[in-house]
Amino acid sequence: MKKQVIIILISLVLFMASLPFTAVYSGNNEIGGLTCLLLGWAEPERGGIAWFANPIFFISAFFLLFRLAKISAVLSLIAVVLTFCYLSVGEITIDEAGYRYPITSYGIGYYLWIASCISLFIGSLILLKPKKEV
């Protein structure tokens, strides 16, 4: 199996693993990774910019699949930065009424999401490393 395929598979496994786990805790409420993925785009002015790490992650994986490691490295770095932007968000909308509640902590789903983007970035960097001639 080619290196770029292995890197993409590892990243995708981490991404998929983040979905069933809790990503954000807000008081007595738990918001799962899948919920964040499906609804995170709805709040671009309040931390939703971090959600854009998701499409950038997949675009980066696409470029890596076609051996465009430089483009993939840049895009995956942007995705990593965006995932960390979510740490600056203080409140999250919990219900349909639009009530906002303070974020009290982050769950394993959030950290797996970060790990998926970081693994893609590191993998892109590994593929950028020139091959040693023996």
UniProtKB/TrEMBL annotation:
Keyword Transmembrane: yes
Transmembrane segments: 47-66, 73-90, 110-128
UniProt name for this protein: Oxidoreductase
Source organism superkingdom: Bacteria
Keywords: Membrane, Transmembrane, Transmembrane helix
Phylogenetic placement of the source organism: Bacteria, Pseudomonadati, Bacteroidota, Flavobacteriia, Flavobacteriales
